[in-house]
Recover the amino acids of this structure.
């Protein structure tokens, strides 16, 4: 349950400890999931990835980059997977390195759905409906290409793709992760089912709000049953519209989703600040459990900062996630604690591959 109560008057400090599922976090700072495309062509985690995450183990919790649960779920080249034995084994070096440095790490399970390309996966992309994201391009081995029209999943296939999150979660726990986060945000497969522009279905996975939230609820329910609800979180981005996944009736849609998820006893909901504050505060009130808030719009002009973090702690968030600030500041927790200046990451090497812009950022030198 949330650390806040209806009568609470004093927000917790960013540097207070907090409980999360079965974990005890030394602070309330979460490293948000960020795509880094540093795996190899087989989707294996590498020694450089182990070093990268270990450098940031002072975070209360690390959420990994998105990890595809199956081949058709891969969105970009050189992103890691959790659907083969070799991939599972490769992640043990990462989780071991984080734990050795005193950290905690969840695996983000990310199914790209229609945001994929056959040049990357060898398979036609799938989605709720045969509708392509408009005016969008996706990375492929030969460079950016227009997002293709996906194949609409059958009703049976939709149920099986929902179960793919649970299968990947079992592998994540076997690889040593402390838990998993389902990527329900930013226009990927779960978000596509929530969307009225990407989901034109007339079966039980579409149409009404109850139909559009069904896929997310099934994925979360299956994953909680597979590894335990206290090891499962879900990330959402209400009203973001990213990758052309437009949503209508946003307060009602996400209110219904949180109401359906609440009985599961999940470890947390990870909420992105992608709609108006009134709606977000309403969702805080609707969710009875731990809430992580990322104060910044994904890839917007302003990254999450201390001011935004304190603001959302005042509004009832339990934990605050930082994304871009962690790229160039592996010691972000200490820099925030001591009010030290933050270095800025170079966007040119976000997805460049290799160790430049990945392992080359250093802790603050006094």
């Amino acid at each position: 349950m949330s650390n806040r109560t209806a009568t609470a008057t004093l927000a917790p400090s960013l540097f207070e400890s907090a409980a999360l599922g079965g974990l005890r976090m030394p602070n309330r700072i979460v490293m948000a999931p960020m795509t880094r495309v540093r795996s190899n062509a087989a989707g294996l985690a590498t020694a450089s990835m182990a070093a990268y995450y270990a450098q940031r183990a002072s975070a209360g919790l690390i959420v990994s980059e998105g990890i595809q649960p199956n081949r058709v779920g891969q969105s970009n080249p050189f992103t890691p997977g959790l659907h083969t034995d070799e991939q599972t084994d490769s992640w043990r070096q990462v989780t071991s390195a984080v734990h050795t440095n005193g950290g905690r790490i969840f695996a983000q399970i990310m199914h790209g759905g229609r945001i994929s390309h056959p040049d990357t996966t060898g398979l036609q992309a799938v989605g709720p409906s045969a509708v392509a994201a408009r005016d969008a391009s996706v990375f492929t081995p030969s460079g950016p290409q227009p997002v293709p029209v996906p194949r609409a999943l059958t009703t049976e296939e939709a149920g099986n793709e929902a179960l793919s999150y649970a299968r990947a979660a079992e592998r994540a726990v076997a690889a040593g992760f402390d838990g998993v986060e389902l990527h329900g945000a930013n226009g990927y497969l779960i978000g596509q089912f929530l969307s009225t522009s990407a989901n034109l279905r007339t079966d039980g996975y579409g149409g009404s709000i109850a139909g559009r939230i069904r896929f997310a609820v099934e994925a979360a329910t299956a994953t909680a049953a597979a590894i335990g609800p206290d090891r499962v979180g879900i990330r959402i981005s209400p009203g973001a519209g990213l990758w052309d996944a437009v949503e209508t009736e946003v307060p009602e849609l996400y209110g219904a989703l949180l109401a359906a998820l609440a009985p599961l006893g999940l470890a947390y909901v990870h909420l992105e600040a992608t709609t108006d504050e009134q709606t977000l505060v309403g969702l805080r009130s609707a969710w009875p459990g731990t809430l992580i808030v990322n104060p910044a719009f994904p890839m917007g002009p302003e990254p999450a900062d201390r001011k935004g973090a304190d603001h959302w702690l005042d509004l009832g968030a339990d934990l605050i996630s930082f994304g871009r600030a962690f790229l160039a500041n592996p010691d972000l927790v200490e820099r925030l604690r001591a009010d030290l200046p933050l270095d800025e990451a170079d966007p040119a090497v976000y997805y460049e591959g290799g160790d430049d812009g990945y392992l080359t950022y250093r802790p603050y030198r006094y």
